[in-house]
């Protein structure tokens, strides 16, 4: 049983709360979404992973980026009924060693047309270090049960309340500690057998407001599966980038499988192709995951 299922016995859990994110804010010229990483150990591993390195906490950034990018495009939909994200791209600049207690994802609009747009994000830790960058392409739609800034969703998320009004308290027991790995957080299990196959069991805590799997949760699972496919205890890799195409909504009333296939395996870089399928066998998303061998940074002469 996943952590999310256990927590649902108390208070309903959303992907945003599951990944310790606050409500988005509209600031001067950009939107901001904050993720709590207080107490996160970047070196923590998950015993359920095929390879301990597959428990990389960078997978959590998929949820953070997907949410801020969708929320930012949502602001520009005009009179259109909703938004569906079709493409998500992420580049991980600093996959480990973040300085807490928070990560800040700032979202900005890049381009808007009548039928959709592009948004971008830059994610920094509390010390101002650049952690990741990302972009999303979204299509505006005219039909749907209602608006939602999250990709593929249908109900608008509330904004951060003014500073003068304290946000509603959330019982600490309702949210997993920041040290819990993304793999355990989504309840994923690597299936035995040939190849790399990550299975995410039915879990309503992973759903968006329409009741299908949140796009950021899929990005999290794709990161984990792609990294596991190319890593080994002797030769660990870190996820460097992801390119995801969302084809259709992903039901969560059955197992969702993320199957990774190695496209290229070199000494310093490896590439995996990841396909997600629902319980009905239909492909829901297709992704390319690039991983790189960990390397120590080199100081540039003359720079402080």
UniProtKB/TrEMBL annotation:
The keyword Hydrolase applies. It holds the Pfam family 4HBT. Residues 160-175 have a biased composition (Pro residues). Residues 141-176 are annotated as: Disordered. The keyword Hydrolase applies. InterPro entries: ACOT13, ACOT8-like_C, HotDog_dom_sf, PAAI_dom, Thioestr_dom. Residues 211-285 form the Thioesterase domain. Residues 49-135 form the Acyl-CoA thioesterase-like C-terminal domain. SUPFAM superfamilies: Thioesterase/thiol ester dehydrase-isomerase (SSF54637). CDD domains: PaaI_thioesterase. Keywords: Hydrolase. One of its GO terms (molecular function) is fatty acyl-CoA hydrolase activity. NCBIfam families: unchar_dom_1. Belongs to the thioesterase PaaI family. This is PaaI family thioesterase. It comes from Rhodococcus spongiicola.
